[in-house]
């Protein structure tokens, strides 16, 4: 006689395919966008700032390393002129205010205010880029003159690249905000662009000190 076959039913929740379960998670009520650290864009922007801040830090370290091995610093006859660099610093600090209000308006999803403050930010952007051209013309040293000249031009050039890229990004966002309907993700983009502009402004302050003040401190 053949042996009797027995079957054992699987315990509840075990041995079943997920499709057999009646439990589902309804995410239809969750928002499709979010601001600040709840947004993936925020974390991407934050990571980019960490990387770029490290590059700035390495360049400043290189500047002081070269200065420590030089008999005379700066190696040019004159330090960079203070006037244009100081003026641009004032303009950049002032630009943080419309940038803050544009960021705040974006998070409140106030389209009228976002448009107005973005236009104000663009005016500041074109102004400090124009002044930056004058800064380069009054560094009093060529980029290929010596190690000092190369360090100064590279440091100022790196920050200028950030100014240009963020100006282009802000210009694109400004144009898009005038095309309705404006989606929630566009407001997130404006908010994160404002966060990055804080980075551009506040990284300039130590760079300004290195380029314009340190040569005078060392020379004295």
Give an account of the 3D structure:
The chain is mainly α. The protein has one domain: Cytochrome c oxidase, subunit III, four-helix bundle (Four Helix Bundle (Hemerythrin (Met), subunit A), Up-down Bundle), CATH 1.20.120.80. Helices cover 67% and strands 0% of the residues. The protein has helices at 40-68, 82-107, 111-137, 147-176, 184-219. Helix 2 runs antiparallel to helix 3. The longest helix has 36 residues, at 184-219.
Largest sheet: none
Overall tally of domains: 1
Percentage of residues assigned to helices: 55-70%
Number of strands: 0
The CATH top-level class label: Mainly Alpha
- Using the coordinates shown, work out and report the CATH topology: Four Helix Bundle (Hemerythrin (Met), subunit A)
Mean pLDDT comes to: 84
Low-confidence stretches: none
CATH architecture: Up-down Bundle
Specify Rg, calculated over alpha carbons: 27 Å
Q: What is the rounded distance between the termini? A: 109 Å
The proportion of strand residues reads under 5%
Please give the count of helices: 5
List keywords for this structure.
elongated; 0% strand; mainly alpha; Four Helix Bundle (Hemerythrin (Met), subunit A); single chain; 220 residues
Describe the structure in brief.
With 220 residues, the chain is mainly α.
